[in-house]
Amino acid sequence: MAWDFLSIVHLRAEFRPFLSEYKSSILAWGSGILGTVLWIASSVLSSTPVAVSAAGMYIVPAAGYYLAYRPFGIQIDLTPIATVDGEKEPDKVAESRGEAILRDGECELRGGVTISERLDSFAIQFDVPDDVRVELRDIPCAEHDYNLEENVLRADDVSVYRFSIVLLVYLEGHVDGQTYEYPLKIRDGEGGKPVQSMDLVTR
Description:
Blueprint: H1 2-23, H2 26-45, H3 48-69, E1 74-84, E2 87-90, H4 92-96, E3 99-102, E4 106-115, E5 122-127, E6 132-136, E7 145-147, E8 152-155, E9 162-171, E10 181-188, E11 194-202
Parallel strand pairs: 3-11
Antiparallel strand pairs: 1-2, 1-4, 4-9, 5-8, 5-10, 6-9, 7-8, 10-11
Keywords: Membrane, Transmembrane, Transmembrane helix
C-alpha cells in the first residue's frame, strides 16, 4: 500500500511538467486540430464511431508521448573530462559517442541538472554495475540529501531548480589495461526510468 501511495504521489508530481511539455509539442498541436475536426464531423453526422475516433485523437497521442518520453521535469547534461597537458578540459569526442573514457580506471563527469519549477521534490539515482563505483564529489545545494549507499540525490521542497554536479567514477579492483564497457544510467529515483545513460569505456 505504501508503494502504491508513493507511486500515485510521484505520478501526480510528474503530470504537471508532462502536461506543460506536451501542450507545447507539435504532436499535441496536430492531434488537437484533427480531434476537433472529428468532433465537428461526429456532431454533423451523428456518428458514434467518429466521436470515439475524436476522443482517441486526444487520448492516444498524449498517452504515447508520456510513455515514450517520461520521466518529465528532470534534465541532466553530462560532459566527460579529460586531462590534456596537465589541464582538465571537456572530452568532446567521447561525449559525441555517448562515452566517458576511464583512464587508469577513473574519470570525471561534469554537468548541469535542471528541475522543472512544477516539481516540488525530486530524486536522482546514479546506477552502475558492481565493478564500478560512482559518487558525487560534493552535495550541490544545502537543501539536497545524498545517500552514498544507494547513490541517490534527492530534495524535498525544492527552491533551487538549476545546479551543477561533478561525478567521480572509479573501477573497483585491478585495472588490467584491456578494453571494457560499463553502463552508467542516471535514473529517476522514484520511478526508476533512465533520464540519461552513458558508456564507461576503459583504456
